[in-house]
Specification:
The complex is a heterotrimer of chains A (245), B (231) and C (270). Chain A has 245 residues and is α/β, with parallel strands linked by helices. Chain A has helices at 50-58, 77-82, 98-108, 113-126, 142-155, 172-187, 199-205, 223-228, 233-239, and strands spanning 12-21, 24-34, 39-43, 65-70, 84-87, 160-164, 191-195, 208-213, 216-222. In chain B, 81% of the residues lie in helices and 0% in strands. The chains are: A alpha/beta (245), B mainly alpha (231), C alpha/beta (270).
Chain lengths: 245, 231, 270
């Protein structure tokens, strides 16, 4: 499917979204709109609900209350799912070759056998994985696996890419590769939503920041404003590296 | 004991056609039972691991309990089903190798299903979000998970094979230990014991052990080689 | 469950059909008989001769007499050959068997430890021998499995006026061979048919200590099953086997079977 020809999924609109688990409210009623373009960082201390919010957006979790609405009216749940991708903190690779992992993701989306081959080859090449394309994915290093996860996501041509702490377990060289990949995606028009702990990374990559504390959306601001003139007391403390709770 | 090893050795060296027939039938019955039980039980175990439904806990408990089903009870159940006076009597399957296959399927199906349920549930815990993110349906996830868990599942299937080839109670009841037709290693051992020919009985036991060990060794070697390649 | 079984049955049948060795698969009957006849090797002697004469194979399921009756009642065999005349007559009276005919006999014996603690070698009758075991309270292993041998043994205890029980009387619920293995292991007396004893290898300290009383007579009978109750069985072929056992040829075949130089079964068809 060619993205240009179809209606965009974005913006994504969350209204009054809450999440409760075993009697505990993990996400307070929250309104959020993600526009067509840009790179958004979700930030906040541990347990703020960053990953939870991302999973609700991606559809891995159903909110307890409120609504998650994609544009592109009439799109089926399956179409919506197929036009997003997510890269996890620890990528899960299937017990097969690196290349076969990419092909598998394409096969799930119903891509024909012939197209799978060249699209997977293209993705592997794009992320510099040719030399390890035929190695078992699960014996690759953490950094290689994360690049493979990005290649797999890229092969799917997602309109929006969610990334949950994609660099937190990686060494600097691998972090650099992931950040370059983010630019690659962005350069091709993919909407980026990412959680991170790394303030420097947020400064380098973000267009805007969503700041959560304790399941509440405390602040949403363009990146410069967030770091230089934070509006809330919690954000001010956070950007100075103080502990926030 | 010495006599038993001697008896085993002599039987192997002599390539006794009766013994070869018994060994072949044993392998045929148990491998067929394992194959059929696995085709049913592996996806079944995976399905139970993946789907939440009312009464799921009960199903898991019953499956786990059935792993300890006494072979004699399994044999008796199959006997009553296949007996001419039973619901499947018209097929005339009692006292045939087919009846023995069915009895062994009843014995090992719960084992393979319960153990694979556990293996797949663990793997699903690891894969779940990633697969859901890729848009993999639960139905589609079953073959993926079974394939990725294949090394653990080989062990599960071997546990089934071990149980099938070692049991005597069920096949004795439904097979009848008919010479040349339904006599397998275990029933032959029981017969020789009842004749008081203990060295021969133990000798047959040693051969059975060698057979089961060979099947396990082949599976182990294949599994290890593949594991080294695929991580 | 039923469907699964049925599918599995079909699949398994297909598998075995492909590998079946017999070209003429249906030319056989299933005979429910006793462990004593099977363990002694008698059928390995008789069946080839019968097959030679008729082209029919006989598949022997060897179980205790009680279970053999049950298999017959359910129609899971085509014919029955057992050794419990009282039970056999009842089987026919209840219309499970079409008729009952004497085929052959041998006898039961008492075996026990070679020291013969209870003094059975001096007994002047079977009842005396049984009484001596009870008086000495020497361990006695009983099959306790409702087999023909078990039924014969219980009848003799009754006639000897003994109600067997207590520590010395061990009901095993096992076949003849297992019972002999146990008796050998614990130096106990036991009641056994001569054929099984002759074929038995694991005697250890056991010896024959009493034989010869006519009450220890062991009669085998052949019982074709009722056509009314089980119309689907292979009655014609079963009848051929029945008649062959009764024929001069069959009777001669029985008489000619020897194990370790001993004739084990004595034909007595009328």
């Amino acid at each position: 499917m060619n993205r240009a020809e179809s209606l965009s999924l974005l913006p994504l609109e969350l209204r009054g979204v809450t999440f409760r688990h075993r009697g505990q409210t993990l996400l307070q009623p929250l309104d959020l709109r993600l526009e067509r373009n840009g790179k958004t960082m979700i930030m906040g201390p541990n347990g703020a609900g960053k990953s939870l919010l991302m999973r609700i957006c991606h559809g891995l979790l159903r909110p307890t209350g409120g609504s998650v609405r994609w544009a592109g009216n009439g799109a089926t749940a399956e179409t919506i799912r197929r036009r997003q991708a997510m890269v996890f903190q620890r990528p899960v690779m299937l017990r097969r070759s690196a290349l076969a992992n990419v092909r598998y993701a394409l096969a799930v989306q119903g891509v024909s056998r012939g197209e799978r081959r060249w699209r997977a080859d293209e993705a592997v090449e794009r992320f510099g994985l040719q030399s390890i394309a035929h190695r078992p994915a699960r014996v690759l290093s953490g950094g290689e696996q994360q690049r493979l996860a990005l290649a797999r996501a890229w092969a799917l041509r997602p309109e929006i890419l969610f990334m949950d702490e994609p660099t937190s377990a990686l060494d600097p060289a691998a972090i650099k590769a992931v950040e370059e990949a983010v630019d690659t995606f962005h350069g091709e028009g993919t909407r980026i939503v990412m959680t991170t702990h790394d303030l420097g990374q947020a400064r380098r990559l973000a267009d805007d920041v969503i700041f959560l504390v304790d399941g509440r959306l405390v602040e949403r601001a363009p990146v410069r404003e967030f770091f230089e003139h934070p509006y809330s007391r919690e954000a001010a403390a956070f950007v100075q590296g103080d502990l926030v709770w | 004991m010495d006599n038993a090893f001697q008896a085993a050795f002599q039987l192997i060296v002599a390539m006794d056609p009766v013994l070869i027939g018994i060994v072949t039938l044993s392998l045929q019955v148990s491998l067929t039972a394992v194959a059929i039980a696995s085709v049913i039980a592996l996806p079944l175990g995976a399905a139970i691991a993946l789907w939440q439904f009312p009464g799921r806990g009960l199903v898991v408990v019953v499956l786990n309990a059935l792993m300890g089903l006494p072979p004699v009870v399994a044999g008796l159940m199959v006997y009553l089903m296949l007996s001419r006076a039973g619901p499947l009597g018209q097929f005339g399957l009692l006292f045939t190798p087919t009846a023995m296959v069915i009895a062994q399927i009843v014995l090992i199906l719960p084992i393979v299903a319960a153990l694979s349920r556990q293996v797949i549930e663990e793997l699903w815990g690891e894969y779940r979000e990633q697969l859901q993110s890729l848009g993999v349906s639960r139905l589609r996830a079953i073959p993926t998970l079974l394939w990725d868990a294949r090394f653990s599942l080989i062990t599960v299937v071997l546990a089934g094979f071990g149980r099938a080839s070692a049991e005597v109670g069920a096949v004795l009841i439904v097979g009848g230990n008919i010479s040349g037709v339904t006599r397998v290693m275990t029933t032959a051992i029981a017969l020789e014991t009842s004749k008081g020919n203990l060295p021969l009985a133990l000798g047959l036991g040693i051969i059975l052990l060698l057979l089961v060990a060979s099947v396990n060794a082949v599976a182990y070697i294949i599994g290890e080689a593949a594991k080294r390649r695929l991580g | 469950m039923k469907n699964v079984l049925r599918n599995a049955a079909v699949a398994a049948t297909a598998l075995f059909a492909a590998t079946a060795a017999h070209a003429d698969r249906d030319r056989y009957i299933t005979l429910a008989s006793t462990t004593s006849t099977e363990a002694s090797g008698l059928f390995e002697h008789l069946v080839p001769q019968f097959r030679e004469a008729t082209g029919i194979d006989v598949r022997v399921v060897a179980v205790g007499t009680g279970q053999a009756f049950e298999i017959g009642r359910r129609g899971d065999a085509d014919i029955v050959l057992v050794h419990d005349t009282t039970g056999e007559e009842e089987f026919v009276a209840n219309n499970y068997g079409r008729e009952r005919r004497d085929i052959m006999y041998n006898d039961f014996i008492l075996v026990g430890p070679s020291e013969d603690t209870a003094g059975l070698r001096d007994a002047d009758s079977a009842l005396d021998a049984f009484s001596r075991i009870a008086e000495a309270e020497h361990p006695f292993t009983s099959r306790g499995d409702d087999s023909g041998t078990n039924r014969a043994e219980l009848r003799l205890w009754g006639e000897a006026g003994v109600d067997p029980g207590g520590q010395w009387y061990r009901e095993l619920g096992s076949g003849m061979g297992e019972t002999l293995n146990t008796a050998a292991g614990m130096d106990a007396y036991t009641y056994v048919d001569r054929a099984t004893w002759t074929a038995f290898d694991n005697r250890q300290n056991l010896e024959l200590v009493y034989e010869g009383d006519p009450v220890m007579f062991n009669q085998y009978g052949s019982l074709p099953l009722s056509q009314e109750r089980h119309p689907d069985l292979k009655h014609d072929m079963a009848e051929e086997w029945h008649q062959w056992l009764l024929s001069d040829e069959g009777q001669a075949a029985i008489a000619s079977y020897e194990l370790r130089g001993e004739q084990l079964f004595f034909p007595n068809a009328e």
